[in-house]
Design goal:
transmembrane helix; Eqnu_transpt; membrane; mainly alpha; transmembrane transporter activity; transmembrane
Length: 389
């Protein structure tokens, strides 16, 4: 690898806080567009009262994000990570813009054709998420844990920000068809701007940070092929490590299957979680920054994660017998534990592996996380059994 004349120790820390902030913005952009679509579902319920948009949109989105992530997880070692992430953020931008175009073109009318258009846009959001969430996690797994923490804090913040913004638009616009439409278009206009900002940040600013150059060069020296375009964007010439010729075994990496078997406890975590993007989830993702209370033990993480299954019967009995205060407290704990454990697992799991393996493991864990979310979205339909369409 090549750092030019820079001191490697200095490069490993220079630009760290700026990088953390960019990672937070990139995490926010990963779900900002789709969260905007979910947040304005009162508008879609008004337009499409017969089609269950709250469930259909989510169920349309989930298979595409899961399938796209699965494909990239299988081929991650050969994928150009830079092009993958840029393609994802560009798709986010185009999807948000398409939502505006569709509403203008149909003059805000209901009916099956506009609803199919909304579902197609939700599917494209899923494809974009499949590009970005696993790609960014794999990319950041090569770097310092604070980058992953900031990225996933940004994911949670996107939900909190869109929810808060919805209160503002509700207050700004009257609760009528025209008011709902104006609020929806404002949401997607903001989303377009923000996704374009993410494209520019990831394309031109992030790869030039000294700390990012350092970690990507380090990954390349360990045999990673996915960072070649990123190094070129950072104007770094990657030179082959002479150790490769002396000992070819040093570039060998564990297969995806081997990584899964070695980290099955972490993967089980991801299957248990259901996305809970709210304020307490955001707070939970910052708690691990306090080193004294960050959970690092694999057994401790596994036991804590599996114990969250107790929240299922707890939620059932709270909904049936408890009052609103207990349900609010239970939901807050769900979000807090979700954010805390997400960051703990995704920052601890890549430790001890080489760069290419960390990238693969990041993709693998996100695939398992999305698989759990997809199962939750499908099981959501259980509540309609016996109640008709």
């Amino acid at each position: 690898m090549a750092y030019g004349k820079e001191d490697p120790a200095l490069s490993a820390s220079q630009g760290k806080y700026w990088g953390m902030f960019i990672c937070w913005l990139l995490g926010n952009g990963c779900l900002f567009g789709f969260n905007s679509m979910l947040t304005i579902e009162d508008y879609y319920i008004y337009l499409f009262p017969k089609y269950h948009p709250t469930r259909v949109v989510m169920l349309t989105y989930q298979p595409f994000v899961l399938a796209t992530t699965a494909i990239f997880t299988y081929h991650e070692a050969k994928v150009n990570t830079r092009l993958r992430n840029l393609a994802g953020y560009i798709l986010f931008f185009l999807s948000s813009f398409a939502a505006i175009v569709l509403d203008v073109a149909t003059s805000g009318r209901g009916g099956i054709a506009p609803f199919v258009g909304i579902c197609i846009i939700a599917a494209v959001f899923g494809v974009a998420d499949g590009h970005v969430q696993g790609g960014m996690t794999g990319d950041l797994s090569l770097m310092c844990p604070e980058f992953i923490q900031s990225f996933f804090a940004g994911l949670a913040a996107s939900g909190a920000i869109t929810s808060a913004s919805r209160f503002v638009t509700k207050a700004a616009f009257e609760n009528s068809r025209d008011g709902l439409c104006k609020g929806a278009m404002l949401f997607f206009s903001i989303s377009c701007f923000f996704e374009l900002l993410c494209v520019l940040l990831y394309a031109f600013i992030f790869p030039k940070l000294p700390i990012v150059k350092y970690y990507r060069s380090k990954a390349a020296s360990e045999g990673s092929l996915t960072v070649a375009a990123d190094l070129a964007a950072g104007r770094i010439q990657n030179r082959p490590n002479p150790m490769f010729e002396e000992d070819p075994a040093c570039v060998e990496r564990l297969s995806t299957k081997q990584l899964l078997l070695q980290n099955i406890d972490y993967a089980l975590y991801a299957l248990v979680l259901i996305a809970s993007y709210n304020v307490w989830d955001l707070i939970g993702r910052y708690i691990p920054l306090i080193e004294q209370i960050k959970l690092r033990s694999r057994k401790g993480l596994l036991v804590t994660v599996v114990s969250r299954l107790l929240l299922i019967p707890a939620s059932y009995y709270t909904a049936k017998y408890g009052d609103q205060g207990w349900m609010i407290m239970l939901t807050s704990f769900l979000g807090l534990s979700n954010g805390y454990l997400t960051v703990c697992v995704l920052t601890e799991a890549p430790k001890g592996y080489k760069g290419p393996e960390q990238n693969a493991l990041g993709n693998l864990l996100v695939l398992c996380l999305l698989g759990g979310i997809f199962c939750g979205a499908v099981l959501d339909w259980v509540w309609l059994i016996g109640k008709g369409w």
